[in-house]
Amino acid sequence: MSETGASYAAAGVDIEAGDRAVELMKEWVKKTQRPEVLGGLGGFAGLFDASALKRYERPLLASATDGVGTKVDIARQMGVYDTIGHDLVAMVMDDIVVCGAEPLFMTDYICVGKVHPERVAAIVKGIAEGCVLAGTALVGGETAEHPGLLGPDDFDVAGAGTGVVEADRLLGADRIRTGDAVIAMASSGLHSNGYSLVRHVVFERAGWALDREVPEFGRTLGEELLEPTKIYSLDCLALTRTTEVHAFSHITGGGLAANLARVVPDHLHAVVDRSTWAPGAVFDVVGGVGGVERLELEKTLNMGVGMIAVVPEASVDVALTTLADRGVDAWVAGEIIERGEHSTGAAMQGTYSQ
Questions:
Q1: How far apart are CA 302 and CA 257, in angstroms?
Q2: In terms of pLDDT, which residue wins out, 57 or 10?
Q3: What is the C-alpha separation between 254 and 275, in angstroms, rounded?
Q4: Residues 89, 68: Cα–Cα separation, whole Å
Q5: What is the pLDDT of residue 336?
Q6: What are the DSSP calls for 53-105, one per residue?
Q7: Among 95, 81, 326, which residue's Cα sits nearest to residue 228?
Q8: How far is CA 162 from CA 49, 62, 85, in A?
Q9: How far is CA 44 from CA 47, 77, 105, 137, in A?
Q10: What single-letter DSSP state applies at residue 157?
Q11: pLDDT value at residue 133
């Protein structure tokens, strides 16, 4: 029997390292603050002054929670921890903005096998930077150390967010009409979906390493796979302020057709023309080295489209100009038509532009 008593540290949990991580992340969290946020980091709960909602006649709160999936393993292997937070914010806040809601605040959860203070702080730095890009506050979070369940270098992240929208400005399927235009916004790459397929293809089937230089990418495989998810929240809100928008669709797991179908009413049908854009090189490479069929790619990956806006035909020019002014690559990719006997919510037609 050991002569010394058991301790939390002996069990693998380092409280001092956790405290050090909190100190390192404070400066980054502070950068995300909005006027409605009360108090600072370190309390038991984040506080948000709800009196700010008095300006709404009927405020509806929108909430979402998500993670980043197996993309975190790419970050771990690369030893790059300050971009994965962008992915987390995008996955949460771009879901919230789909209904027209303004992102208000977010909390995060970081689970690690061992607390490396600088590493945890880097993850939070990325989350904070993402929150700034989404216009939301990071009001708190949790860092949990799970020795024995996770390896010393393993980690995972999750987040939850809240937004608000005026009830009579709620976007969705009930607003969509025949003749509406489907505007696509370009993705920055794979974003944060389909990495189980991608990792299987490039690592297990092709045997590639993360430091492999890929000519089609103009950089290494790891750098391409770690490209942060684009955050569209403020771009979408800008559209709602400058012109009429009927619906948004965040293109995540399930691909473009499946996610667009979620906001199309039963009596209508969305048709998207593949020939209006050329997916980025990463999609061709994944499909080529893995022998993945096009339909499998399309139901797993975003194929170059990260967000969809459905707008009246009369709003197209203003919408495209607004997005161009904000540096967002966007184009008319399809239209809304009456649903035929055999049609479903959304469908792809044609072949991709070359």
A1: 9
A2: 57
A3: 20
A4: 9
A5: 96
A6: GGG-SSEEEEEEEEE-TTHHHHHHHHT--SSHHHHHHHHHHHHHGGGTPEEEE
A7: 81
A8: 13, 6, 17
A9: 10, 33, 16, 17
A10: E
A11: 95
With a cut of 50, say whether residue 1 has pLDDT above it.
Answer: no
Nearest CA among 164, 166, 71, 175 for reference residue 126: 71
Both structure tokens of 10:
């002996």
Q: Which tens digit of pLDDT belongs to each residue from 31-40?
A: 667 777 877 6
Q: Which residues pair with 338 in a beta bridge?
A: 268
pLDDT tens digits for range 90-100: 999 999 999 99
47, 38 Cβ separation under 8 angstroms = yes
Determine the 3-state secondary structure of 118 from DSSP. helix
- How crowded is residue 350: how many other Cβ atoms within 10 Å of its Cβ? 12
90-125 burial, b for 16+ CB within 10 Å, e for fewer?
Answer: bbbbbbbbbbbbbbbbbbbbbbbbbbbbebbbbbbb
Structural tokens at position 189: 């790459």
Per DSSP, 202 falls in state I
The confidence score (pLDDT) of residue 12 equals 53
Cα(36)–Cα(38) distance, integer angstroms: 6
The fraction of the chain above a pLDDT of 90, given in percent, is 76
Residues 229-259: tens digit of each pLDDT:
999 999 999 999 999 999 999 999 899 999 9
**Coil, strand, or helix at residue 186?**
strand
Residue 28 has pLDDT above 70, yes or no: no
Lowest mean pLDDT among 172-176, 303-307, 342-346: 342-346
Determine the Cα–Cα distance for residues 313 and 182; give it in Å rounded to an integer: 9
Contact call for residues 94 and 231 (beta carbons, < 8 A): yes
pLDDT at 345 over 90: no
